[in-house]
Amino acid sequence: VVTLSLLMYPVLRSLALQLHSAVTGSYVSGTHSIAFINCLNEQIAKDIARAIMDKKLAACVNILPKSSALYFWKGELEESTEILLLVKTRTSKIGELSNYVRSIHPFEIPEIISLPIDQGNPLYLKWIEESVPRD
């Protein structure tokens, strides 16, 4: 019984948080995420952003202006200018988003990382919820 309880704890906790959120209207931390995706130039960034939106994998994609990047690639120090995408979506969509972006991104190993949203404007978080279809 103890082992089963320990194994079921994450599922039961998640269900309890979702129920609490539905009853109280409060936000469950980590329900949504921001993904960071670097692109070679503005046109690639726009193309990827539009493709993400067309697939309804995000509520919003911000395209940030050029930034300088220093990184090691194949043992050599590289320097480049990149465009950063900030993708606001459901945390449950991060895997699908990552797979899709890897399939269309020109980089051999594109940067696709995400962070969960802990808190924010409740109306904005609700808008993300309404804009990105459930799994």
Task: Using brief descriptors, characterize the structure shown.
single chain; 135 residues; alpha+beta; Alpha-Beta Plaits; 2 domains; four-stranded antiparallel β-sheet; 4 helices; 4 strands; 42% helix; globular
- What is the annotated CATH architecture of the largest domain? 2-Layer Sandwich
Low-pLDDT runs: none
CATH topology of the largest domain: Alpha-Beta Plaits
Number of domains: 2
Shape: globular
Radius of gyration: 18 Å
Pfam families: CutA1
InterPro entries: Ion_tolerance_CutA, N-reg_PII-like_a/b, N-reg_PII/ATP_PRibTrfase_C
Family: Belongs to the CutA family.
Subunit structure: Homotrimer.
Gist of the model:
By secondary structure, this protein is an alpha+beta fold. The protein is 42% helix and 31% strand.
Structure report:
This protein has 135 residues and is an alpha+beta fold. The chain folds into 2 domains: 1-27; 31-131, Alpha-Beta Plaits. It is 42% helix and 31% strand. The protein is built from 4 helices and 4 strands, in the order H-E-H-E-E-H-E-H. It has helices spanning 2-24, 42-54, 94-104, 122-131, and strands at residues 32-39, 60-73, 76-90, 112-116. The protein has a 4-stranded antiparallel sheet. The longest helix is centred in the first third of the chain and has 23 residues, at 2-24. It is globular. It starts with a helix and ends with a helix. 20% of the residues are buried. Residues 1-16 form the signal peptide. Keywords: Signal. Belongs to the CutA family. This is CUTA protein. It comes from Pandion haliaetus.
